[in-house]
Amino acid sequence: MITEDDIRRAELELAEAQDALAELGPGRRFAWLTGRESGAVRAARVGWVDQAAERLEALRAQYAAERADLADRPAREKAAGKVVADAGKALEASRKRVTDAAAAAQAAMVELLDAGAAHDELVQHTAAELVRCGLPLSDGSGVDHQTGGTRGAVRLRGAWWTGVEPSSLAVWVLHRVAVARLPRLHGLTRHLQHFGRRLELDARPDGLLDKVPALAAARVRELPRPEIGEVHGAPVVFADDYERGKAERQAREAVKVGRPVSLAEAEQEYQQNRRWRSG
Fold first, then answer.
1. Which residues of the chain carry a pLDDT beneath 70?
2. How far is Cα 6 from Cα 11, in angstroms, rounded to an integer?
3. Considering only CA atoms, which of 49, 62, 50 is closest in space to residue 6?
4. d(CA 16, CA 21)
5. How is 82-112 classified by DSSP, letter by letter?
6. Predicted local distance difference test score (pLDDT) of residue 90
């Protein structure tokens, strides 16, 4: 929404531009500027005045349109009653879906961590049982027995069983989902790529997670951005305060490139150009 402060700022900018142009005087030229440079300064300041005037006119037009729009809004809301009611039902159903999905994911993550912790506990218990039966995990002989093990892993009948580190399991799953459902360069995907011991789970000799089905990559849809400041029946000058502020800054920078805003700045620019030409 355009505010009265926006209008006042635009009026001040127009006044500043007009004052800068008036400093040149009618046809007057700076003694220290060449004819070409003086003409460029005048043309730049005239352009600044025109741009500021056009912007002020656009802001005033949008301000008036927005005030008329506010007065007419209750009638339009009443006419759109069915659309509003249907949208409310759809949003409520969507919120329930999100809540249910979050609850299911939370429960699944708890089950995953519990299963991983139980697996690690079983590996450690099995190692302790081997030792209790007089089968040390390593006897220093260098022979691969049917039983044995190392820290966090045991070997039974030649097959290795290794702990999983539950937190790495959670990261592994979340990374796979992020890769399949988020944009390719999303920050979460990059952050999880080398987080913890996730990569170790992809190269386990026991193939613990080999049977986890792969996720098909989904095409990420770009959500439409609503015109926040759209006025019914009138063209939109700026979508919102952020866009308006950004446009204002860009406009000022663009104008500053082509015109000095004061005599002091003009003199400084001239001295810099002269040093560059003489150097």
1. 25-39, 139-143, 220-279
2. 9
3. 62
4. 9
5. HHHHHHHHHHHHHHHHHHHHHHHHHHHHHHH
6. 96
